[in-house]
Amino acid sequence: MTLEAVTTSGDLMRLSMGPQHPSTHGVLRLIVDTDGEVVSRVQPDLGFLHRSIEKIGECVDWVQFVPYTDRVDYVCAMNSNHAYCTAVEALFGTDPACAVKVPLRGEYIRVLVAELNRISSHLVAVGAMSMDLGAYTPFLHGIAQRETVNDIFEKTCGARLTYNYVTVGGVTHDLYVGAEDDIARFCTELEREMLRFNRLITTNTIFRDRCAGVGTISAEEAIGWGLVGPSLRGSGVAFDVRKAEPYGVYDRLTFDVPVGDNFAGSRGAKGDSYDRFVVRVLEILESIRILRQCLKDMPKPGPQDKPADPDTGWQAEVKKVILRPPKGEIYHRVENPRGETGYHLVSDGTKIPYRIKIRTGSFTGVGIFEHLMRGIMIADIVTIIGSLDIVVPEIDR
Amino acid sequence: MSTEEPRAVDPATPRPRDVATAVPVDPATAVLERFASVTAHVTDNRQPYLLVPAALIVDVTRFVRDHVDIRADALMSLSGLDLLKWPGAKKGEFPFSDLVMTYHLFSYRHARRLTLKVQVPRTAASVPTVTAIWPVAGQFEREIFDLYGVDFPGHPDLRRIMMPDDWVGHPLRKDYAYPTGYGGVVLKRDGQHFDDGPYADPALPKPAKPAAGGAA
Question: Cβ contacts (< 8 Å) between B143 and chain A: which residues?
Fold first, then answer.
């Protein structure tokens, strides 16, 4: 924490927390007015990572924008790809004449990679939160498992962070040979690892009491302040876009929606930081369930899924087609690790998008800071940032 | 979502009925019945929306939030749109005019969406804030203020959010002029300095020829 200016007025001291502070999860700056250890006001100062992705979207064509969605949220780039591509397909789907049909195997592969990335993103989230509170070891355990996911993605598409794998109409190519075995092995290993992780941190009394009752958000507050995803479910709202507005093959899969229920016991409250932490841990286990069902139900590669000669085969035909969606607009949303990611796409019928608006979970998550961080201790700021799982590129876009 | 507090109802809006009807009413129909100046439209790809006059947006949003059969308790997204380059755009005629705010609403209780639109002229872009209805609107409105230059009277803290405070212009407007530099740094294109625009640095010499390519 850098001491930027000593005093403002009265007894309040103004501190600048970030933008290079390790516990602000990226380039986030908080202007904190404190009275001793007690925080009187927190103002987020955003925009350090603004890359004008929405403006760029008005200059490239519909498919060329996919790599930029990787950079919207690089902790879960597969989900970001998936969110944009399903939105474009929904926009095409409003006109039956130009609807895009995704092969069933493609849909399953998308869900597979999306859930793998959800697991790795949640591992970073819960690991980083415990690291912010002083428990370094669980973070390393989470990162070690995330490496396995990155290895699978590297074998699949060659990249470890920004994938550009999910694309409009499916995925760029099939899974590598042996991917199913790798994912099945990862599921078994992760399940064992999560037991160890829970013994280490989730059920740890010190950690539980540290988070209990900190940053409690009621269900009404969470809805009004636009919290989404695990932060919303931590407050007890059983809402998941995968259930409420199923996309892909999520309507064929069985999984539960974990909600916060005062897991910390007598010292906590429903919707506190510990509830949000536990919801993420439970979602990792649900994702493992989804992965296993996908591996079981996924159709074998058909003739259309086989790699073809990119210069003469069907891929060459696909390359010639320039996507021109119908004139009009759509708001489509999916469930990402940081909650609902919505795309408001406006098309004027040409190959260049007229407007791409990205609604992300972290952007609204930051909005509640000023409301939530009034009269708390400075150290609890770190707890709340960690429990809301803020990823800064998603805020600034 | 188990607890539901009764909200204070503005006397200007009709009192919501106390019991939800068996078949919830269509949100759009209820709004159209209550507000005569709201009109129903569909987009070119048949997505329905309601066009709300800017002055009425607070009343309409409070109505749809508090109406027991609509209960639009969440503002999913609020996005701006500049129609300047929309095909066939003609000034002063909807939908071919100026700036449009799109409110994507969602009801967690009834699992239903509702889309509202507000159209404002680009020269006097001003929409009353809905932060009193949904606090999350504060973030979205700051973003639109920054990138589209729309004023939201009544907003508690209307500042730029993405761009620096001293930035000139609103980048997502379709007639936005790209800056020629910022903070003393001059951008070059084809080896030549930009020599006009809001960020041109008068201290820097203008290159005589494009091939000169002098460093800034």
Answer: 363
Which residues in chain B show pLDDT less than 70? 1-24, 88-97, 187-216
Residues pairing with A346 in the sheet: A329, A355
What ipTM did this prediction achieve? 0.84
Rounded to 5°, the CA angle A309-A313-A317 comes to 130
Predicted local distance difference test score (pLDDT) of residue A29: 86
Which domains does chain B carry?
27-176 (3.30.460.80), 178-216 (no CATH)
Asked if the C-beta of B138 comes within 8 angstroms of chain A's C-beta atoms, the answer is: yes
Which parts of chain A sit beneath pLDDT 50? 1-9
pLDDT single digits (tens) B130-170: 999 999 999 999 999 999 989 999 888 888 888 888 888 88
Helix, strand, coil percentages (3-state) for chain A, rounded to 5, are 50, 10, 35
Q: Measured on CA atoms in the order A181, A187, A193, A195, is the torsion positive or negative? A: negative
Q: Does B3 touch chain A (CB under 8 A)?
A: yes
Contacts of B134 in chain A (CB under 8 A): 224, 226
Report domain A53-396's class. mainly alpha
Q: Which residues of A68-80 are buried (b: 16+ CB within 10 A; e: fewer)?
A: bbbbbbebbbbbb
Q: Tell me: the pLDDT tens digits for A142-189? A: 999 999 999 999 999 888 888 888 888 788 888 888 888 999 999 999
Contact A95 B5 (CB under 8 A): no
Alpha-carbon distance B208 to nearest alpha carbon in chain A (angstroms): 31
Backbone angles phi, psi at B187, to 5 degrees: -85, 150
* Residue B17, phi then psi, degrees to nearest 5: -65, 150
Q: What phi and psi values does residue B59 have, to the nearest 5 degrees?
A: -65, -45
Q: In whole angstroms, give the CA distance from residue B108 to residue B106.
A: 6
